[in-house]
Amino acid sequence: MFSLADVVLIVVVAFVSLIVCGGVAMAIAYASHSFHGDIKDLASDVLVFIPAQIVSYILTVAFMVLLIWGRYRRSFLEAIRWNPPDAKNASWAVAGGAALALFSQVASGLLQRWIPKSLPIEQYFRTPSAAYALAVFGILVAPLVEELFFRGFLYPSLARPLGSVTAVVLTAGAFAMLHSEQLAHAWIPLLLLFAVGTVLTAVRARTKSVATTVLMHMAYNFTLFALLFYATQGFRHMEQA
Question: 204-239, pLDDT tens digit by residue?
Fold first, then answer.
């Protein structure tokens, strides 16, 4: 089936599409005068970069589908092992994702002294509208696309030549590194994200179901945003987070 060369090709397409879509979104926002800040702040404006990232994700997933069909003549969902779980396993996936988020929050609290007081990702939560947009994106969009790539493509491409254990570790490491810049390359947040990635990839290896890890990932992100929503009184007081 697909190989690491296919994975590299997907990464290149994702990177190029993100750059192009981001540039177009910034140009449109600047030309329409809908953005009133400094042009340097455009790249970090949620209402600019989230639409650009969504379009980039759509293009990347479309490329994934075309790659599988054009090169291997197979159904996309069959190739990546989508395999929807039954109701019982779906419930366990949602509960597991929520538990993983609670564990992550507790661990972050216990290890707070080793975590920077300010992380780059926090700059995106400037207003309630930005926080709501990030919540929708983080719950419904990002988990789907990230799971398609990491657990749908990367893990099996590594597992075939290297074995499941090594593939789980490498996939989890790549998953953590994707978010490294947002977390200021701080080792504690990255270690916690590596643990989350390890669980998600282990579940994928065990169940052979990417749909299950998508549910887990969505539940994980939903729980984190729900906790943030509660702590900030409806995203109105982000300084309390």
Answer: 999 999 999 999 999 999 999 999 999 888 888 766
Compare 186 and 166 and report the one with higher pLDDT.
166
CA pair distance 35, 117, nearest whole angstrom = 29
- Give domain limits for the chain: 1-79, 82-241
Q: Which positions ≥6 away from 131 have C-beta within 8 Å?
A: 125, 228, 232, 235, 238
Q: Which two tokens stand for residue 175?
A: 């998953």
CA atoms within 13 A on the CB side of 182: 13
Long-range contacts of 87-94 (CB under 8 A, 24+ apart): 89/207, 89/209, 89/212, 90/212, 90/215, 93/203, 93/212, 93/213, 93/215, 93/216, 93/219, 94/215, 94/216, 94/218, 94/219
Longest dimension (CA), the chain: 53
